Amino acid sequence: MFDISIMYRYLDSFIEGFAITASISVASIIGSFCIGLLVMFACISQSKVLSKTGYTYINIFRNIPFIVQVFFIFYGLPELRIFIDPYTTGVLALSVAVGAYCADVLRAAVQQVDQDVIEAAQSFGLKRLTIYRKIILPIALRNSIKPLGSIFVNLILTTSILSTVTLNELTGTAKIIAAETFRPFEVYFFLLLFYCVLTYILSILITLAHKRLNRFSEAGA
């Protein structure tokens, strides 16, 4: 029989795990976007060194399993006397790994900006930095918000891997409760619901952001 009382008995633990997962997700989304923005600028830079460095970063972190990156930071770095707590490990690993995907999406979005728009801005005597800040980046962000949203939803789901480094986020908490109650079906059913809530909230926010960024183009359509 399905025992919903487990939810009531361990609600505080579930909420605590939910809060940790949400906190890590928000911090990692901000971190990965900032890293992605910096790497994107490196990729499109006129400097060959910066450009190659940016593309190398993307290729490396897109081709290493995330769990390997987490284990390297949490279990490998202590051999070099570098000790990082589980929470910081999660934020750092997610930011660095997902930053590579963000950089690739942003780079593609910037390169898709109509060249005529850029040339028109240059004809008005606008400086390169101003063109990027006022014209190119807003257009690129508008075009990339949905792909970035998909990346960030996947980021939330990937936080479950952090339970392997003793972090009691949602999945780590669920493992403990399942071991204590011997009711894995109910425990993991509620775990599914919590992840659905998190990703659904983010999906709504991404949709609202997309509508806001595209409000003028939609109005003129």
TrEMBL record:
CDD domains: TM_PBP2 (cd06261). Its main location: membrane. It comes from Vibrio barjaei. NCBIfam families: HEQRo_perm_3TM. It is a multi-pass membrane protein. Belongs to the binding-protein-dependent transport system permease family. HisMQ subfamily. It comes from the Bacteria. Part of the binding-protein-dependent transport system for glutamine; probably responsible for the translocation of the substrate across the membrane. InterPro entries: AA_ABC_transptr_permease_3TM, ArtM/GltK/GlnP/TcyL/YhdX-like, MetI-like, MetI-like_sf. Keywords: Amino-acid transport, Cell membrane, Membrane, Transmembrane, Transmembrane helix, Transport. The chain crosses the membrane at residues 20-44, 56-75, 87-106, 148-167, 187-208. It is found in: Cell inner membrane; Cell membrane. This is Amino acid ABC transporter permease. Pfam families: BPD_transp_1. The lineage of its organism: Bacteria, Pseudomonadati, Pseudomonadota, Gammaproteobacteria, Vibrionales. Residues 18-206 form the ABC transmembrane type-1 domain. Signal peptide: none annotated.
